[in-house]
Amino acid sequence: MRFPDLVFALLVSVSVLCPAQTKFPDTPAGHQFAAWLESFNRGDANLHREFLQKNSPSRISSLDREMSFRQRTGGFDLKKIEESTATKVVALVQERSSDQMARLSLEVQTEEPHQITRIELSAIPRPAEYALPHLPESALLAATRKNVETEVAADRFAGAVLILKNGKPVLSEAYGLADREHKTPNTVKTRFRIGSMNKMFTAVSILQLAEARKLDLHDTVGKYLTDYPNKDVASKVTIHQLLTHTGGTGDIFDPEFDAHRLELRTLQDYVNLYGNRAPKFEPGSRWEYSNYGFILLGAIIEKVSGQSYYDYVREHVYVPAGMTSTGSEPEDKAVSDRSVGYTKMESTAWTPNTDTLPYRGSSAGGGYSTVEDLARFAEALESHKLLDALYTEMLTSGKPGTPDRSYAYGFEDRMFNGARCFGHGGGAPGMNGDLKICPGTGYVIAVLANLDPPAATRVSDFIANRLPEK
């Protein structure tokens, strides 16, 4: 009996014993799908290499990536076969370590030994037929603790978790180490790098200036950055488009960034490096996430306010919100209680992310904060300490032209199992964070981690998907 057939027989037996599981099709593609899934789920690199050498030689080069993916996901459980022919299977699967579901498509050769020719996996929103149960608060907190402890035991989470209901903490806990070399534990007061979560502070600042009639959201970049090098960006891209990632202004993380990482010390340094680029597409015609767009927003804040971006955000966002542990100090400056970020993106072991960090955080991301400060930020937004009700609604409501109208102004606006939550995540090597403000339920969720994505996002989503119904 060939290896795939043996595995297929074993897995079908399991399906018979456990009726909740979907049976694998009794076809060449079904056999190979079952065999690949079993091999992948084992997480043994040597055994998986042997499987690929025999059944999908072209995938040997991606073995390390596949095993890294296995570590992050915990493997997959089959939920449903959507399509099946002799040479193709399309199935719904779910990550074992999260609520994320995906559509997996596998194709094989028509002739024996039916080697795998293609595997494609794409994340999808959770279908209604697999809706998760809403939990009473006590059960939610118990389930959260169990979930996080499982993630910690699997070395997939280290960080802090804070859940508030109507402004009062109902769960406030920290896990793992802030500094593995010195065995320093994480606490709820640990400062974690927050990646793109700074975009929320930048967007609030822009709307404060709009509320004060110091700028208009439909003005172009060139009205404020009058000497901007690329004339198409200057004359066509609007502040609204920068805020919604529809301006075509592109990214900053590329070989140019790698070559000049520690030389990029001001927002103007970024403009000097990238300012000659033309828009990637006609501004306003489509959506594409743009870190550089938020660099430009920071530069506009500086021009309009007459302050540095860092001074403006500190004075107009952090201070009124009571955020005493948030900032973007340079990496060469000692910052108390700032955790070390650990990454596996270039290694199979956790290593400090020092060589990936910019000189300092910017208006696009890269600063640091605590879960307690993020909770204070959420409270300041909801109580209109930062913006009035009209501008707060404008800030946080998803906009046309963004995917599923889910992106607002520097905030994501999404539904989680029927609950609307707005906020933003952030992630880069050795850092991951997420803030969800769910006004209909009264809950705020803040999770920060000093490990690679999706360490914090996975925990945050787990909580949001199980919030009690109002």
Mean pLDDT equals: 93
Strand content: 15-25%
Structural class: alpha+beta
Number of helices: 16
Notes on the structure:
The protein has 470 residues and is α+β, with helices and mostly antiparallel strands. It folds into 2 domains: 3-130, Nuclear Transport Factor 2, Chain: A (Roll); 139-464, Beta-lactamase, CATH 3.40.710. 36% of the residues lie in helices and 20% in strands. The protein has 16 helices and 16 strands. The chain has helices spanning 3-17, 28-42, 45-55, 63-73, 137-153, 198-211, 221-224, 231-236, 239-244, 255-260, 267-274, 291-305, 309-321, 371-382, 389-396, 455-464; strands at 76-84, 88-95, 101-108, 116-124, 159-165, 168-175, 177-179, 184-185, 192-195, 342-343, 351-352, 367-369, 412-416, 419-428, 431-438, 443-449. The strands form 5 sheets. It has a 6-stranded antiparallel beta sheet with strand order 6-5-16-15-14-13, sandwiched between helices. Helix 2 (28-42) packs antiparallel against helix 3 (45-55), helix 11 crosses helix 12 (291-305) and helix 13 crosses helix 14 (371-382). The protein starts with a helix and ends in a 6-residue tail after the last helix. Mean pLDDT is 93; it is low at 1-21.
